[in-house]
Amino acid sequence: MAELVVLPRANRPERCPVTGLHAWLDATAITAGPVLRKVTKANRPTGRGLHAESVNVLVQNAIARAGIGGGPWSAHSLRAGFVTYAHLRGASDRAIAHQTRHRSLASVGTYVRIHQAWEDNAATMLGL
Asked: What is the torsion angle, in degrees rounded to the nearest 10, for the CA atoms of residue 78, residue 107, residue 103 and residue 98?
């Protein structure tokens, strides 16, 4: 049975994935089929969806254009980044798992990438 997962609009339109999706669909005149499609050399979408490895290449190219070092980066980095950011903003593991389609709450925890000891530190709650 299909389960409904919603994506609300962001407060800032320039960072809103829903606004971006609608802009893409309007610009490409896509009304059915895959949203992420192969494009021609003339930058026109075809009717065929992107191969999963193509998404990795697109992510890696975008990272390079942004001048962000480190890595390695992949489409999977987007999922891990979402989980980490949602966690840092106070989303529950259950809410994150529902959005990302994780079946296990334990696996959500493995995606949280905290690289600074002062972020999400339980000891900051002591003495309050």
From this structure: -50
